[in-house]
Amino acid sequence: MTNDEIQKLSNAAKLGDKCFEYICSEIKIGMTEIEIAAKMDSFMMSNGATNLAFDTIVGSGVNSAQIHSVPTNRKIEYGDIILLDYGCVLDGYCSDTSRTIFIGEVKEEYKKIYNMVLEAQLKAINEITSGMTCKEADSTARDYIVARGYNFNHALGHGVGKEVHEEPVISPKRDEILKDNMVFSIEPGIYLEDKFGVRIEDTVVLRDGKVETLSKARKEIVII
C-alpha cells in the first residue's frame, strides 16, 4: 500500500471507530439485532461512507456463537453478549472492525473468554513483524488460544484495501512473507456452540517492521 492508500484506510477505520461509540449510546434492551444493524449502517452512510464494506453482523446471545451470523428479530435482553462486525467504504477504501459488548452485566464465563481473546489479539499485535510468514503470524494468537483448551476456527486475518478481503491471508495454511505497508486485519475469536462467541478485530498496518493499529475503538470490557 502507498502512504496515500494507508491514509484512506485509516480514515475509513476512524469512521468505524465513531460508529462503535455511536451504537454503544443507542443500544437499548428490547431492540432487535436488525434494528441495531440498521442504525450502524445509517450512521456510516450518513457520515461520508459511499457503501458498506460487507453486510453488518450483529449477533446477540446464542447468535454470537455463529462466526458470520445474520441479524435477526431477536430482541436484546439484560445480561446479553453482542458481537458486532462492521465496515464501510470511504474514498474507495474499506474498514473492518469487530467488537463484543455486554448488556447490563458481564457473566463470569463471558469475561473469561473475552479477556482470553483480547490477550490473544494484543499478543499478535505486539509480536507480528515484517518478515514473518502468514503462518507464523497466525500462530501468535492461535497457539495462545489452543494452549488454553479452546478452538480458533478461522484465519487470524486478511488483507484490507479496496476490497474488504484481499491478500495476504493470515492463516496457518499460508507461507507468504509479511512486508512493510501491508494492511490486514487481526481478529481472533472463540465460539462456543449453542452458547456464545467473542471476536475482537482491528485493521492494522505494518510500519517499520511492527504492527500499528488503524482502528482504535476501545477494547476494555464495555457494559451498556
Structural class: alpha+beta
Helix content: 25-40%
**So what's the overall shape?**
globular
Main sheet: strands, sense, barrel = 3 strands, antiparallel
Radius of gyration: 16 Å
- Beta content comes to 15-25%
Averaging pLDDT over every residue, what do you get? 98
Count of runs of 4 or more consecutive helical residues: 4
Order of strands side by side in the largest beta sheet?
A: 1-4-5
Oligomer: single chain
Distance between the termini: 37 Å
Number of strands: 13
Series of secondary-structure elements, N-terminal to C-terminal: HHEEEEEEHHEEEEEEE
Fold and architecture overview:
The longest helix has 24 residues, at 3-26. This protein has a three-stranded antiparallel sheet with strand order 1-4-5. The chain has a three-stranded antiparallel sheet with strand order 2-3-6, with helices on one face. Helix 1 (3-26) packs across helix 2 (33-46) and helix 3 (108-127) packs antiparallel against helix 4. The protein is an alpha+beta fold and 224 residues long. Helix content is 32%, strand content 24%. The chain has four helices and 13 strands. The model has no long low-confidence stretch (mean pLDDT 98).
Write a compact overview of the structure shown.
The protein is an alpha+beta fold and 224 residues long. The chain has four helices and 13 strands. The mean pLDDT is 98.
Which helices and strands occur, and which strands form pairs?
Layout: H1 3-26, H2 33-46, E1 51-52, E2 57-60, E3 81-86, E4 88-90, E5 93-94, E6 97-102, H3 108-127, H4 134-147, E7 157-159, E8 166-170, E9 183-186, E10 189-192, E11 196-199, E12 202-207, E13 210-213
Helix pairs in contact: 1-2, 3-4
